[in-house]
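Service request form, structural biology core

Requester: graduate student, group of Dr. S.
Request type: structure prediction, single chain
Budget code: on file
Notes: please return the result as structure tokens.

Sequence provided:
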Amino acid sequence: MPTQATFDPIAAFRLDGQVAIVTGASAGLGRRFARVLHAAGATVVVAARRGDALEALADELGDRIVPVATDLLLEDDRRHLIDAAVTAGAGRLDVLVNNAGISWIGPAEQESSQDWARAIELNLTAPFRLCQLAFEPMRASGGGAIVNISSILGLVGGTPVKQAGYCASKGGLVNLTRELGAQWARKGIRVNGIAPGWFRSEMTEAMWGDESSEAYVQRGAPMGREGAEHELDGALLFLTSSASTYVVGQTLAVDGGWTIT
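Core staff response, request fulfilled:
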């Protein structure tokens, strides 16, 4: 047993020497996730379609940021991303954060088959394929942690913000997280998720500054406000680090109480 002088529970949240992937890292929550994992000591492979934004992040943070321009709708790009991370880690891969996503907003009867298919492909199929591709490198590294970024709209309905494909894909991601967690727990790979509530991001940009939209968020969240950027940091570090080694298949709602009412 450690003495009180050496006891350091905060050390469990460190990621020193680990290699992590964050998708959708060019802006918003994904960019913040990359910064958090980097600050915790990880080498972070950042992926998004906008390579210039990734390069800017790498210039800002310096060492241990590896930008990989990636279109997650393309299978070859998914494979290339995993290969690039394994190369950056000299053979190891420890953390995968599936954050990239897309939404089409409008009545379900008007959602085209193309918009539906795009939401399912990017929000559900791409995370599944990245999990599959990361499986063997993580096993070879002695285990790993996967965090799927879902949404409160994967736990409850979205109306009056109507987005059937988004809700369906994020709900599917919640249950995929459960199933992969159950299948891979004894293989050393923990799969969990985060369901953010209403946060300011590119996807929700149109809401902020609109009086009725802001009132909707304030009314629906028991805390009476949207989330601040830093309020996802703790959940991310918990689920990606050894602080959560007995947690598997869970999706943690960080939503100011939205889903409890």
